[in-house]
Every structure is written in structure tokens, then in C-alpha cells.
Amino acid sequence: KPFLYTYIFLCIGGIYIQYTFTQESLSHSINSLYNPLLDFVCKYGTHIGDGLFFLTASAFISLFNRKMALVFVLSYLLSSILAQGLKHLIFTESLRPAMVLDLSRLHIIDGVEIRNYNSFPSGHTTTAFAFFALLSFYAKNRLIKIAYILPAVFVGFTRIYLLQHFFEDTLRIVTGK
Question: What's the pLDDT tens digit per position in 144-164?
């Protein structure tokens, strides 16, 4: 419950932000925070939301608890099928920031491939929230349960900072704005 309540609170705040600002202005604001440290942290930290990270962590968990690892793998499969299904079957024309924004006015990080289509929803953010929600479920300490939302939110931030997604792609709510 602590992770879920924190997630709901953040979603309400995210909805407010989404209705208050344009996706373009949010992308510009987050991308304008650039500095060498944040470039490095976001470039590599975004991989926390990668499927390979999820599966590697699940393999590590299997060394201690096979049943728990199975739950993690099934969660990954379900969240991936859902996110990729939405991305490639329903929201196929969803443009990424590179197709909408003037990239000459934005900070591009060396070595980050800028994609053009299939922006909604963010698969990395979906994967990160699935992974850290499960860790929260298994955690004993209430504060740790709540704290697990931070790396998931961080992955969403990296996706916007790296110009891979708009804010709405990481929140997974379409506003039409």
C-alpha cells in the first residue's frame, strides 16, 4: 500500500502538471537542466528501466528465492506485452520529441540514439515501475517501500531528459494537450 499510495499521489501531481504545461515546455524545461554529471547519470541510469536489467535482477533473485523470481519474470512479461502492445499496435503514430521539437535548441547527449516514433507509453518507465513496485511489495520496512518509487520516477525523468519521451509518455495518461 505505501508504494501504491505514493504512486497515486504522484499521478495526481503529474496530471496537474500535464494540464498546466505543454509537453513541449516540459521537455524543454527538463532538458535545460543539463550538465556533465546529469548527462552521465541519465545516459546510464535510464538502463534501470531496460528489460535486460529487470531480467538480470530476476536471475539474481532466483539464487535466493525461485518463486519470487518467477513473479518478477511474469511481471516483466506482462508489463512489456502491455507497453509494447500499446506502443506498436494502438499508438503507432505517437511521435517522439525529436519529431516535434527543434533539436537545435536542445541538449543532445553524445552516444544516445534519438528515436522518432512509438513514443507512448515509455517502455523503460513501465518496466521500472513494475520492477520497483514488486520490490516494494516484498520489502518489510514501510519507508523502504515508499523509497522504491524514487528510482522508478528517476527512470521516467531520464527518458524525458534524454529526449526519448514526453512527460505524458512516462505518466502513461493521454490528455490530448
Answer: 999 999 999 999 999 999 999
DSSP letter string over the chain? -HHHHHHHHHHHHHHHHHHHS-HHHHHHHHHTT--HHHHHHHHHHGGGGSHHHHHHHHHHHHTT-HHHHHHHHHHHHHHHHHHHHIIIIISTT-B-HHHHS-GGGSPPPTTPPPP-B--SS-HHHHHHHHHHHHHHHH--SHHHHHHTHHHHHHHHHHHHHTTS--HHHHHT-----
Tell me the chain's radius of gyration from C-alpha atoms.
16
Residue-wise pLDDT tens digits, 112-122: 988 888 888 99
Q: What's the grid cell of residue 111?
A: 552516444
Quickly count: other Cβ atoms within 10 Å of residue 154's Cβ: 20
